């Protein structure tokens, strides 16, 4: 199953970083591949969010989130038109005041033949720009 993990140092408090990661409605403003987001339901500890992204082709999927305020965000796929499974997490640790280490982990299974170019874009090549986009957004709000 393809997967990836990476981390980024963000010059912002964990609370700010967490708020950026969980402000799903704002994703189209700073994540260029995100076309549409619909928050189906959200509480302090859970969320169900439907996404439409464009990475070579249009992809729709819904994720189920478990939220631990300012510390961790874990998700699993509820349904999607390309993924068989998609699970991952963000783990946040404020290394010193106003500096947050954000660890990103993801595992996906497409359950069918998906061209290597799409797999690489979704799992690997897109990752540096994704991390930079979240970092820039959080630092602009800190």
Give the key terms.
single chain, 142 residues, alpha+beta, Alpha-D-Glucose-1,6-Bisphosphate, Chain A, domain 4, 4 helices, 27% helix, 50% strand
Oligomeric nature of the chains: single chain
Q: Using the alpha-carbon principal axes, give the shape.
A: globular
Q: How many domains comprise the coordinates?
A: 1
Strands ordered across the widest β-sheet: 1-7-6-5-4-3-2
Report the strand count: 7
Main beta sheet strand tally, sense and closure = 7 strands, antiparallel
Q: What fraction, in percent, of the residue positions are helical? A: 25-40%
The mean pLDDT is 90
Return the structural class.
alpha+beta
Instruction: Count the DSSP helices.
Output: 4
Overview of this structure, please?
The chain has helices spanning 14-22, 27-30, 116-125, 127-141, and strands at residues 3-10, 34-42, 46-55, 57-68, 72-80, 85-96, 99-109. It has 142 residues and is an alpha+beta fold. The protein starts with a strand and ends with a helix. The relative contact order is 0.26. The protein has a seven-stranded antiparallel sheet with strand order 1-7-6-5-4-3-2. It is 27% helix and 50% strand. It has four helices and seven strands, in the order E-H-H-E-E-E-E-E-E-H-H. It has a single domain (3-141), classed as START domain (Alpha-D-Glucose-1,6-Bisphosphate, Chain A, domain 4), CATH 3.30.530. Strand 3 and strand 4 (57-68) form a beta hairpin.
């Amino acid at each position: 199953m393809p997967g990836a993990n990476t981390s980024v140092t963000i010059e912002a408090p964990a609370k700010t970083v967490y708020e950026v990661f969980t402000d799903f409605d704002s994703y189209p403003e700073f994540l260029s591949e995100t076309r549409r987001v619909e928050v189906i339901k959200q509480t302090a500890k859970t969320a169900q969010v439907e996404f439409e992204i464009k990475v070579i082709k249009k992809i729709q999927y819904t994720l189920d989130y478990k939220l631990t305020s300012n510390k961790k965000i874990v998700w699993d796929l509820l349904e999607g038109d390309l993924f068989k499974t998609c699970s991952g997490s963000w783990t946040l640790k404020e290394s010193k005041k106003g500096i947050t280490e954000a660890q990103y982990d993801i595992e996906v299974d497409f359950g069918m033949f998906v061209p290597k170019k799409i797999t690489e874009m979704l799992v690997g090549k897109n990752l540096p720009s994704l991390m930079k986009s979240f970092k820039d957004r959080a630092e602009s709000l800190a």
